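anyone else get weird line breaks when pasting these?? whatever heres mine. first is seq + tokens for prot A
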Amino acid sequence: MRWANREEWRAEKELVFEEHVAPVCADFEITPDELARKLGEQANILLLDFALEDLVSRCFPPDNRNVIDDYLKKRGRLEPVVARQYLQALRNSFVSLYEVVQVEPGSYVVLRDLIRGGEVVRAEERLGSQAMVQWDKLAARVVTLMGRNYLTGATFLLPSEAAESLLRIFRDTDKQMQQTHKKLARRRALEEDQRQEVSTVVLAGFATGFSRVWLMYCLDSLQRPLPELTNFDGEKIVLSVVTFPLLEIALSEVEHLLDAAPELERESDERSWTWLAEGDGGKPPRSKARGGLSFLTFRDDNRTLLGSVDLHEKHVILSVDSKERAERGKALLLKLLAGFVGTPLTSVQSVEQALEEWDAQDNDDDEFPEAEEIDREIVAPILKEFLDDHYRNLLEEKVPALDKKTPRQLVRSAAGKKKVVVWLKNLENHEARRTKGSKQQPYDFSWMWEELGIAELRR
């Protein structure tokens, strides 16, 4: 890095770094300094390292000058043999798009090259592997040293949408290169090794394509508003609290009325009740939401929890997650407690406001101890049963990510199977990332692969 900062390499370094950031800065109408502030320290360091690896693997005119060649010629004798070999491998490396097939955290990852194809490769990686899960997509360089493969320091973890964008871009570029190659070869069919050679030529100058796509998705995610958050009734989540003043001190009568209500269930011996939806024959509820993210709280008998009711000395307080539920709960309690409560007052808070309020507080993680192990043992089978039913129903539903077709429809064709494989891998990847670092086991999707008859493609 110090050698690349020398005066004789300043022009080349500035050129390469500008190629990585300037187009994205222009698209988002920000300066490079503003870009660095938006990314944050860690992401910005990663970007600089990625651009640096691109710099030292490039050759510049005149005479194909290269930073590593220059360094090794003038200072190489000071480096151990293994260091010189590593630098030479880095000098001849290129970035490609990889899929994580297997992970052994703290040891290695098994990767599939999504662009060049070929056999999977095992790459030694101690630190980075601890943050990876199966089916992650990586923009990375793999170098071989003394017969073993290693990931270099600068690796981008890409969302699936970014990976698909890169694949589309590369396919278009690669197609043009293949056509040129065929013309030069008098239209002879390409062998697998020839195809890889052409792909490698394209990849050798494609590092900026990876960083630009990664940057665009990073900035887009930072500027993107929160998705529409709804409950399972399809109602926008707005934290709502309805306060009913008690007209007279008649706590025992109010307790009796709340205890007798079939919609309410008392929590232990406290003056607190859970508001429950009517049962659905023991089946988990189906979401009525359309798009965005929907949230559900339910019990082991699959009844939906709609809210809570708390009795205080002078008030009855209803807490729910939408304005619509607040209105339904208000009507329920006004009828149930007629003569005992006055006109209620409703206060609401959006999710954004709640997050801002949370950020403004000096919160201590110690205030939220981890749930007891017994809770996890109780919840796990209930959650599995719910997810089993959810995903089994999903196989028959039109999925937006699958061109609004059902998974069963798509697996009838070869092209459709490819889309379903990508979809299932994304489901497994999201689940693995959701449960990573916790004691919770990720949901096992293997039955879905079997059910759809594509288990052999899960590799």
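and prot B, same format (seq, then tokens)
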Amino acid sequence: MLRTFHKGGIHPPDTKLSAHQPIRDLPLPGSVAVLLSQHMGAPARAVVNKGDAVKTGQLIARGEGFLSSHVHSPVSGTVAKIEEVHDVSGYRRQAVYIDVLGDDWEDSIIRDGTLDKNIRSDGEEILKKIVDAGIVGLGGATFPTHVKLSVPRGKEATCIIINGVECEPYLTADHALMLEKGEEIMVGIQLLKKALHVNKAYLGIENNKQDAVEHMQRLACGFEGIEVCELQVKYPQGGEKQLVQAIIGREVPSGGLPIDVGVVVFNVGTAFAVYEALQKNKPLIERIVTVTGRHLKQPSNFRTRIGTPVSVLIDAAGGIPENTGKIISGGPMMGKALSNTEVPVVKGTSGILILPEEESARQTSQPCIRCARCLSVCPMGLEPYLLMPLSQQNLFDRLEYEHIMDCIECGSCSYICPACRPLLDYIRLGKSNVGKIIRSRKK
């Protein structure tokens, strides 16, 4: 029997329209806007000025503080300005605008060369290279990878889990990466193992990606201590806590992290970025982005430079269909609707989804019918039907008591609700306010 997590979960249609599309290299845009805050934690500080010439891979913003990350130029050209730009949430953030002039790379970056399976670096060097390369979690959370590798005092990592689940409908970036760069991912996993001084790694892949499962299982035979786990298809299995339970049967406690049960979780894209940082001295300046939608002419997976406007990706996939109702950064369950298509790609951009009007329109919200479906599908065992009215009434103490901070914002409750209630919207609002209260209390 295939493994999966035990509490809640749903089965939305896969709709993996670009599942068998090879990765295409997106042509360089005329200009890019590189956000200084595209990772969890403090924004990076720009170390370039207007008029400066930069090379591809050059450091342009330094992460300051433990919870931050360096930012590098994804192109070569001239710094046009340092001003604010709208991010995927609609907020204005500082960004370095670069006019593209050719593609002149930093001399230290190895662009070609053969893959080397031998790990010569020690844990300290691996950690330093990851910091220098500005690597963050590429599954969407963008948590700085070097922070995950710095295990807190009193905790101990016994294994790592690599997330190849990609449970969001439509998205296929990780699937394509595993098929085309599987061996490089395996080397990246070995590097992460060495950095954490663990001997065991598990790679979880849902069985709707059978070609990726078989491919990675074959490759794993040539690497010691890596087990590829074929998982049952169930959303949101890509959540860290759900994946830990599905693969090794350990339950992360309320308010805790996977390291509390001896596990550190990384995305397959992160493992590939670690490989590139160690073997090619290449910082995180590009990623695979799925551009998809039922009415899109050519759903595709693009190798995309950070800072590229979303409009460039959409044009490369055939342009915006006439009946488009909404454009989403990410997947349909956890993604965010874009206010415009000039929003730049960031390190956490996994996909661009174009929905037609009939699929994007919200249904009229009705009173709760007390069916408890939201409770039955919640993977964290919460009570969404209760959290929504508590948030509406600003009852933040009660929300904290009801463990609202455990919500992973997967959207399963809103998806299953027969009354079409905006459960997740209000839970997000309540969670945001409770989070502010908890942070101010700690200060």
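btw re prot B: The domain at 29-100 is CATH 2.40.50.100 (OB fold (Dihydrolipoamide Acetyltransferase, E2P)). DSSP finds 13 helices and 17 strands in the chain.
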